[in-house]
Amino acid sequence: MDDQTKAWVIDLIDGQISDADFESLQSKLARDPEARRYYVQSVGITESLASLAGTESSRGTVLERGGETRSPRSAGTWVVPTRPLVLIATLAACRMVVGSVAWMAWLKNANATLAKQPETAVEVRDDETRLSGHATLRRSVGIDWAKGASVYREGDVLPEGVLSFQSGLAEIDFFCGASVVIEGPAKLQIENDWAAFVELGRMRVQVPPAAQGFVLRTQSSEVVDLGTEFAVEVSEDRARVQVLDGEVVLRGGTHDGVHLLDGQSQVLLGEPKDFEGLGEMVSVRDMESQRDELIEQRLANWRETIQVASQDPRMIAYYPIGNRTPGRVVNDAAHPDGSRDGLILGPVDETRGRLGPKTSALEFHRPGARVRTRIEGEFAAFSFACWVKIDSLEHTYNALFMGDGYENGEPHWQIRDDGRLMISVMIDDSQKIRRKSRVGGEVVWDNGVHRVYFSEPIWSVANSGQWMHLVSVYDPGSRRVAHYVNGQNVSEHEIVDPFFTDTLRIGAAEIGNWGQPFRDSPWFSVRNLNGAIDELAIYNAALTSHEITMLFEEGKPLGY
After folding, report:
1. Distance between CA 278 and CA 266 in Å, rounded?
2. What is the number of helices (H) and of strands (E) in the chain?
């Protein structure tokens, strides 16, 4: 480690670093793994010495610089504090143990000593996927989002910011472990894993032991939970808290330091006569009961939709899946004779469907998992529609529906690892051409003339485990290709002459994988979908935007 970096770290710990040197050190840590390791080791030893001297460690302490408050750095993010709140205590401990001069000399040579010891620092990966957020929307019932507010679905990670809705119920799980049920109208400012500011609404908060210390702030006081459950009601000119089980302490305002126990309440703002009891507000169990009733209604409506869809004369094949009978056969509801039924092969797992525990979906997590079918005939257009839940896009190409041999007129419908929905139809399988990839720019060899029509990225890790409705339309008649996600058009393309064919086929095909059974070697491309499919429909027609929106609205799960 160079002497300049060592000097910057020493000045930082001693609280004497200049603004210019601070920025230089920050830049150094961002690009130099050895410098980061030295910094972590030096601060760790400082904290250890402080612990020996009986002072409090800085773990979990808010750090300050230049009037700004920052959370402690997380793995993979390098935020260097200039003056930790524990700095004075830490330095005092260090000097008490080894003396001021000895401590500074020892720290300058710490790198040489630590180099002889086993590596203990956590490896920091610069290429790790990162998300910003402090909580998740676990469940919702009948939410009407406020005009202009951010809209979230069940399972979404909630970032720092405002959650605002006019009516309905939401259950939010903070990463610290606290669970909050909110009745609309409500407006909640999520601040971090441990705190939120409530401007409006009735909220019931459950705090397990791991989340003790969770803070719900109002305009007049902070409510700090000491375990286990409390309720808060806040409006523009009034606020009240009631302990349902356990204990809370109030901070700030005229009630600073007040402790409340089981059944006790405190008016934080306004007059006591303006309030009713908070003990009767909606609980998690009440919310679950309401949600179950809505799911039953949604399921009944969807079963009626299945009957209508299966009679559509444009339907090439229709696999409801979520309403199927047990066994290896995946029935084609549009052809009761079974000629286009699918057969489950390999380790396909049955899982909960998008409409609740009384429905099912099929998971294709392992390379051998697939559903095989055979669809004979010639078609004028394709509209592929399905509900899909993607856990990860771990392969370059991730299959939705794939023609076996990819011969003339046969489709491939899949998702690329960068989240782009893609569809293609083979135009001339007799040629082998060299071309430049339209996504990525690399030069590749293709077996046959075809064009892949990509959407913009429609999936990221933030959507992991979330049900999505995907539709791709391939229409030679209008020379148009279009992709839709959750009823919304996300891209359109023209079919130009070199890639035009008006004769479409399917033949032998697979759902959720691509087996390539005609290959001349034992090797095959791994394209199984790491996720689940619930309801797949293939139309011999180009569905209109209105029809696609209706498919989404009629089939969407609760929480959309």
Report:
1. 11
2. 8, 29
